[in-house]
Amino acid sequence: MSLPLRAVTLYHYITRGNSMGASRRGGTGRIFIFGIDGATFDIILPLVEQGKMPAIEKLMKEGSWARLSSTHPPMTPSAWTSFMTGRKPENHGIFDFTNNEMTGPRYSREFVNSTIIKCHTIYDVLRFHGKKSLIIGMPMTYPPFEVNGALISGFMTPGDYCDYTYPKSLKAELLVRFGDYFLDPNPHTFDEFDEQDFIKSCFPSDQSKVKAARYLAGVHKDWDMLTVIFSTVDHIQHYFWKYLDPFHPAYDSEKSEIYRRTIEHFYVRHDQYLQSFLDGLAPNDTVLVVSDHGCGPTRVVFNLDNWLEQNGYLKRNRRIALKNKVKSICRGVVDSMRTSLGFTPRKWKELHGRVLYGKTRAFSGYTSEMGLYLNEKGKRPMGIVSPDREYGALRNELISALKEIREPKSGERIFDWVRPREDVYDGDLSKLAPDILFGNRPGYAVYPSLSENLFDYYPVISGDHEPEGIFIASGPAIRENCEIESAHIVDMAPTILYLMGLPIDGNMDGRLIDEMIRGDYLQNHPPEFFCYTDLQKRGDEKCSYSEDESQLIEEKLKALGYL
Ligand SMILES: [Zn+2]
Fold first, then answer.
1. From ligand 1's centre to the CA of 477, what distance in Å?
2. What CATH number should be reported for the domain holding residue 59?
3. Protein residues within 5 Å, CB atom, of ion ligand 1
């Protein structure tokens, strides 16, 4: 059932003022949001059955839950931005880790940050109503922006040296209070990846967030909404999925003896963090547990740019490819010499420009984009595809061909679906998205790689994002023991505003998930709608990462297999 949208005028709303908020507030108390990036019910439900996640189990029994549909692509920046804004990527402008405006002969692209989000967030709406927000670790909140309360930015913050808090003075306050604050686990590369070292470096990052959240809740006792998002479950799944998957080509039975339960340990630990927060809440507070997407195995990699080259759509820059190959051989020799002399290996930068764009009709997006671009004349710096008939014919040809691609060993199709952009996005900013989008079948990943093989069977990233995350809600307005059939991440913001007793933003794409609201509560508190216009237009004050910051982010994202 969807509710009719009833926009009220600003005058109407102001004349009713805060008294409306106050009278509704009596039922729902404060909102506590516990985010576990990448969490999936595929791992949680068996652990709940075994009694290993008692906090989650209790919330599911006492409340409602749903498998939460993510954005396409199901990636951290687009999905958490949809969580914060209640809008789809084509309306908030974040599709992936990079913006899609390609510049220069190398088609350079910038990494996204909070200033590129084109609309306001729920935190701006709360500020408008004088409600206090505490936000810890939310991806896509760097650079930090003004909130009524406090903010510590999350994933996509370049490094610990940055000013990652609002107010700015909070960073120094945290360092004085705790001695340190760890944004992310240790940086690393695949070549240097050490399981034990990585596991150990996740703890300080998680614990920093727990400590900061408790500290801020103590300082701002009058908070209305507390959001804390943890990232390490996502990261650990990327690297350790192969140890719990005996069918994975990179399964190693000896190492699996040691690491089979690592992912489980992370989920159990997050359940303990959750319980520690629940212990500090009041009985009429509402708790939401959310993830931005799920996770599943990646067993086979399809190298899309290689396929495009083999089929005459893309021209490889052999000169750069050769230079990179020579560099990589030299790197191996020099690194081993440095290591034997007791020095740490130096950082090596891969040369960009592996594609000759002036002779290329189609090229793939990054791994995380799940799409490919046509090199359209007038739109791309060295475009050669005419925007009229040639564009349409080429796109249809590619869609038909991609649908038929099969993995030779199993004979399976690798794509679940392949569609033109306008079949996936319908908002104002759709033109920024890739021209063709696809959904991979479970177990397959598509890389923008020009490696020698069409298929690779030993992906370094063994767990990758799936489009279904988690959502659990429990509180005085929430129905008990209720599984909701369908919920989307864009539904979170309208539902949160309703639970806070505030008018829902009529411009949001999402809906109030009214199936999970108790009938008597819904009857006594009919939802109201309001068009909050331009509370915060971040797109107008766009700022870019410096070259060094971009490099730090690029290394981090490469290590996680997104680029
Ligand atoms: Zn994520």
1. 28
2. 3.40.720.10
3. 37-38, 76, 234, 292
